[in-house]
Amino acid sequence: MTTTVLTRAGAAPRTRLSWPAVLALHLLPAAVTFAAALALGPVVRAWHLPPQFALTLAFAFVLTPIELGLLLRAAGWSWRGLPGILAFRRRLPLRLYLTILPCLIAMAFGLVILLAPLEHRILDVYPAAWLPPPDSGAFPVSTMVATLLFALAVDGLVNPAVEELYFRAYLLPRLPVRGALAVVTSAGLFAAQHYWQPERFLFVFAAQLLLIAVMLRVRSVRISIAAHCLTNSLAILLALAAVLR
């Protein structure tokens, strides 16, 4: 059962989703993506490419198209209709980006350091055998650089931007709960759909709690897009720097 929620004058009415729809829309696209990454694994190995490239390809050609397709379907298959289904579209002054983004990035990297021991323990119990850590020495530098640059474009820029539009600007306002429970639900489901990295569930959940709270405070998905893109890009750039040193 769905319930129509009337918004401010001039904004399109939003329909609260049923719980089965919420679970399907949050969890199924990533499940299909994970299956595609598993299927691409042997192909990537046959091409003598780093194993993570299978996931990057799945993000580029499965996850992002699915999420964009669902957004377009909700918008009546019209790019012009997209703004009408998206919430939190407030424009922010530059000073807010310059103030908020460094704090969010610092907190994200602080969480990485804080949770690293727990993640190592989880990997001891549940090793990511399907996606082993890349041994940069096992691949030519040119191969590592090319795959990381592709990852920078896909997982550093395009995919996180689409994810924020899909999960925050589209799904979050349509959850069948409101307030703090909606924040926890959105963050929890976003973490749960990271099937390929169970050791990072807690980090993703905590980081999303923070990011969603800030986004709701300033009423702008633009800040969450910027923060998500920056944190993903910085992680990839650090890997690239390690390859090139």
Word description of this protein:
By secondary structure, the chain is mainly alpha-helical. The protein has one domain. A two-stranded antiparallel ribbon has the order 1-2. The termini are far apart. The radius of gyration is 19 Å and the shape is globular. A hairpin with an 8-residue loop joins β1 and β2. α2 packs parallel to α5 and α4 crosses α8.
Q: Which value, in Å, is the CA radius of gyration?
A: 19 Å
Strand content: under 5%
Category by helix and strand content: mainly alpha
> If helices are DSSP runs of H or I spanning 4 or more residues, what is the number of helices?
8
Question: How far is it from the N-terminal to the C-terminal residue, by CA?
Answer: 56 Å
The major beta sheet can be summarized as:
2 strands, antiparallel
How many discrete structural domains? 1
Helix and strand element order: EEHHHHHHHH
> Order of strands side by side in the largest beta sheet?
1-2
What general outline do the C-alpha atoms trace? globular
Residues in helices, as a percent range: over 70%
Q: Uncertain segments of ≥5 residues (pLDDT<50)?
A: 1-13
* Mean pLDDT over the residues: 90
How many strands?
A: 2
